[in-house]
Design brief:
By secondary structure, this protein is an alpha+beta fold. It is built from 18 helices and 35 strands.
Length: about 700
Amino acid sequence: MEKYVGHDNNRDAYMLNTIESRVITRTWRHWEPQIIHVHHQSSPFPTRIWLPPFSEPVSPDVNPLMAREVNTIGMTMAQELESHGQPGATSMGLAFDAWYPGYIDYLPMLKNTVAYWTETAGYRYATPYFYTLRDFPQNMRHLRARSLYSSPWKGGWWRLKDAVDYMMTASEAALEYAAKYREEILYNKYQAGRDAIAEFKKQPPYAYVVPQKQRDPMAAVALLRRLAFNGIRVDQLSKPATMDGMTYPVGTWVIPMDQEFAELAKAVLEVQHYPDLRQYPEGPPAQPYDAAGWTLGDQMGVRVVTVHSPLSDTARAAMRPVRGKPVDWHTAKDAPFATDSVAAGITPPPGRITGSGGWLAVDPAQNEVFRLINRTLAAGGEVRFESGQAGANGASGTGGRYLVGGVSSSRLTAWSRELAVNGERTGRATGAEVQPRVAIYHPWTASMDEGWTRWLFDQYGFAYTSIHNADVRAGDLHDRFDVIILADIRPRTIMNGYEEGTVPGRYAGGVGEAGARALDAFVRAGGTLVCMNHSSEFAIEQLHLPVKDVVAHVPRKEFFASGSLLQVITDPAHPVMAGMPDRAAIFFDGSPVFATLDGFQGAALAKYAKDGSPLLSGYLLGADRLHGYAAALAVDHGQGHVILLGFRPQWRGQPWGTFRVLFNAAFYGGAVPRQGRGTPGFWASPSIGEQSSDAGTRTAQRRGGG
């Protein structure tokens, strides 16, 4: 996975998309360690090693026994470093909070295992360096002792051996603590599990219900398999049962919460309410170290129902533990979660094909449809896109569909069954032929978001070409490609890349002015440029699009949303939004918010409501800055199009609910754009400055807030 996502393999603990995270999780579940101690680099300069306690905020779902034990071990390590004359240990501060449960070395806390990491100075080099106070930030030159930075490091030589010595001291301190208090550690682990079982027998949530009937049935399966692989027990109804006054049919999945790892299920399925922490009173919000909201039901487009009343004896009698036949992990490449018996037993309802004819019409609301499409294309078959219907009076329209043919009927049937895809056979295929020639821009500056894009396309079988700076600068892009995709990359990075002299010559620089002109020419000649999140700003600037990011220069104390889930209104009638519900969750991460200027031609793909808060999970300050603006646009530019997505549709392989937006955009080349321009009147750009002026009264907005 390093070829894809680099250090994001450390942020994948509950999704388990990467090979590394699955191997680690499987190993830890097999051995059940009592303490997981992981060393990272680097400590906030000029401190030498960072140790727990963690910064604020911390997960509200971790058992206090686990949290206290981590803090105690952290202080034990700090004391041992002082005893060895190794100054510069620090804790808490403004970095390394424990809010996001995706850290591979913190999620075990939600499974009643003490887990933490340290951060040691020296990750950039192995060459000795002599530091003076001139190297220190101005606010650290006073060398004043602080409560959790008792012995400030004063500078001097720092070598690789020093970093290793600090880590050795910390490791030995943790080992000594474990040996001395082994019985207490074991009992606390037992007690935490016992308390979780008792807690959720007395208070909600008593269970989570996941119906089999979903817009995308495989998304629900994917969610549950990941929970099961992490040790969550999943039941299934053997007969209809009523919970919270709602009767669910046979086959419905139920996660009973009176189980020892219940806090993990709660942490990923509940709504997150990130606290309003400020850098100083009345100042801007503190930046979360990672995501602020990640609620999996919203992200993945899965209906998850929280049960607020105790489960009746009748309901419990209808629940049967899910069990399947696990496969050996050595041979589980195509079924990575099936090494776990519970995950192996979680299977989707079989795909259903109706009608007759040589073509199969499929709804892109099912992500697995794109695997089917790409298999068809790889086998020499044909794919067409048939547009949906525009809405009336500006309301969201209905989505289009893909038609696949040119391969044998038996092959299509077998693939549909394997992928659990529902479809309708038809004798005629209308619409535009899908013949994508797709490129993904791959900067030498190692973008993890670009890596996740390649990973996702590989998972779903897309054919694409990776292009680098020299390929872009060479021009004639339209002769080779129909669609070029830019991941979430800052404009300066795209333009400038690595500075000359810091890397070998072939890796220096970015696309530069020549590359920007080449991309402009590519679009004007009829190509489609797809831009995610911050790369949208690159396209707006360099292609001189009549679009403005209305939050680009708003002070953080007035508008802020980092790593949170927001709701948008979509227009599925546009081909890029085919298969989307008319209300959808997007992963907003310091994202652009669009207004259009004079001369704009194109369509809005998604917009924010004109009032209320769009926050679903996480944190949002200044909701009125979004009111009525666009979250995604299709901009006509010459003969081609620029797709501006003001969100991260493939973030860490998590938001299954927006994968199809990126997939549709990859097919939005050739004749497909002529298939539909969305619903007339779906959106009109507010005038710049129409936002509410009551900035002084804005407060952090949360779900259900004003």
